[in-house]
Write a structure and sequence with these properties.
Distance between the termini: 40 Å
Number of strands: 17
Helix content: 40-55%
Bound molecules: zinc ion
Structural class: alpha/beta
Oligomer: single chain
Length: 492
């Protein structure tokens, strides 16, 4: 039985979908005005694991992850320029060019990380009508007011009959005290109120007509409106990064309750944050590393390039509710761990079977039960990995003929290792798969150099032969001298 930690109730709960056999899950996606970084990779990988596990359990899953292409202002508190519009202005392109460009790059990065695409990927700008309707419902219910053509949610009034702050564990007083430091209330009745619709300033290019003004929806509206459209008034899981708990998801709860009378979401799930050397990641701190920079190693803080699978494995080695602290040492250790796992998977193919063997099917059965128990325990991927590592040790002993296994036992072990490594954790040997193509492309040139090296060796020109070998190995080609000459493969 799968148990998941519900941020709303603050405890682990058994997962029971609202409709038997079907799961609706909504995850807040990226605001597409810049390249994806580790902070994007973490929720993507976390909810990919949940998606894969629910599918594996036989559920029909509708996974909705939105693209925020409008309404996310520079200062989350309803102020400042739209993030995408600003980028478009600076680069003198259409805002939708910015959104499309970064959406495409986001998709490529997610694919490389091994994340399955969501079932539906709705854009905020494509759902303005639904958002206007939501705002109208909240006005009609008496929980919003108009001010200067903009519409604001009346938090104080809402809080009289409901608890604003229930998700983040705050009460209204805390929120008021925390927001006092900010400048005046402006056109809001109260500083804690949040925008449902903003009247566009004359220079603002992303604008739509509405009953109140030419403008654009507040950021929190899109997820409430699109979640409802694609998953219904009530759905199972809503997820995202912990930084979204307040105000974004808190506001989503208030919007749902104000507009439909009750809450939409059954289980709220949040992944913890990524830190770098214990510090929050941020552009101003100079420690902001994009995924592409990780993949190529092109950032001053990186000592090497780290493959997409190393990044994925690194994320999975921490529980999603723990902080994940980046360092070169931690990533290098992840790479080693991942290599060990794939090495063991390869060695599984070279194990001899024995009839009167020490290991039968019970070993794999137990391994499988332990891995399922770990997954069921709020998706404890670090525990799954530790069980797989234990299995790697056994596989090593089998390959080294220190113990024996029978045919059925070996087949079960292969199945279990494959199910958890590739199907559920979504890991594949990117050194292998990516390199196969490159090896084909380089084959002619590398063979020519190695033929030259063979000739140099035959002529006892050690300087040339060593230099060819060293240069190639520095470029990532591992060369082995064999009886018939040589063999080589790409290792990075
Ligand atoms: Zn959202």
């Amino acid at each position: 039985m799968l148990t998941i930690y519900n941020t709303l109730t603050r405890r682990k709960e058994e997962f029971h979908p609202l409709v038997e056999g079907h799961v609706g899950m909504y995850v807040c996606g990226p605001t597409v005005y810049g390249d994806a970084h580790l902070g994007h990779a973490r929720p993507a990988v976390t909810f990919d694991i949940l998606f894969r596990y629910l599918l594996h359990k036989g559920y029909k899953v509708r996974y909705v992850r939105n693209i925020t292409d409008v309404g996310h202002l520079e200062h989350d508190a309803d102020e400042g320029e739209d993030k995408i519009a600003k980028k478009a202005r600076l680069e003198q392109v259409e805002p939708m060019e910015v959104a499309q460009y970064y959406t495409n790059r986001f998709h490529t990065a997610m694919e490389r990380l091994g994340c399955l695409p969501p079932s539906i990927e709705p854009h905020a700008s494509g759902h303005i009508i639904e958002q206007i309707k939501l705002v109208q419902e909240i006005i009609d219910a008496g929980f919003a007011y108009e001010s200067n053509g903009s519409i604001y949610f009346d938090v104080e009034k809402y809080n009289k009959s409901h608890h604003y702050g229930k998700l983040s564990g705050r009460n209204l007083e805390d929120v008021i005290n925390a927001s006092r430091a900010l400048d005046g209330v402006g056109e809001k009745h109260n500083q804690v109120d949040f925008a449902l619709w903003k009247k566009a300033q004359p220079e603002h290019i992303m604008r739509w007509p509405s009953p109140w003004s030419d403008g654009f929806p507040g950021w929190h509206c899109e997820c409430t409106a699109m979640g409802r459209k694609y998953l219904g008034q009530h759905f199972d899981i809503h997820g995202g990064g912990m930084d979204l708990v307040f105000p974004h998801h808190e506001c989503e709860i208030a919007q749902a309750v104000a507009s439909q009378g009750d809450e939409a979401v059954h289980y709220w799930m949040h992944n913890n944050m990524v830190t770098i050397g214990g510090q929050k990641m941020g552009k101003s701190l100079g420690n902001f590393i994009t995924l592409d920079e990780f993949f190529t190693g092109s950032h001053p803080m990186l000592e090497a390039a780290y493959s997409p699978m190393t990044i994925r494995f690194f994320i999975l080695q921490a529980h999603y509710r723990s902080t994940l602290d980046f360092s070169n040492e931690a990533l290098a250790a992840s790479k080693k761990g991942l290599d060990r796992l794939f090495e063991a998977l390869k060695r599984l193919d070279s194990i001899n079977i024995a009839t009167d063997a020490a290991i039968g099917t019970a070993y794999a059965d137990e391994l499988e039960a332990k891995c399922y128990a770990a997954m069921d325990d709020d998706l404890s991927t670090p525990q799954v990995i530790s069980h797989l590592f234990d299995a790697c040790r056994t596989i090593g002993q089998l390959a080294d003929h220190k113990t024996t296994i029978n045919q059925e036992g070996l087949e079960r072990l292969r199945t279990v290792m494959h199910t958890f490594t590739s199907e559920l954790l979504g890991l594949h040997d990117d050194a292998e798969s990516g390199n196969a193509e490159r090896e084909t492309a380089y084959a002619g040139a590398v063979d020519m150099l190695l033929d030259l090296r063979a000739k140099a060796k035959a002529a006892k020109d050690w300087e040339t032969s060593d230099s060819i070998r060293n240069n190639l190995s520095e470029l990532g080609f591992e060369i082995k001298d064999t009886k018939d000459g040589y063999s080589w493969r790409l290792t990075k």
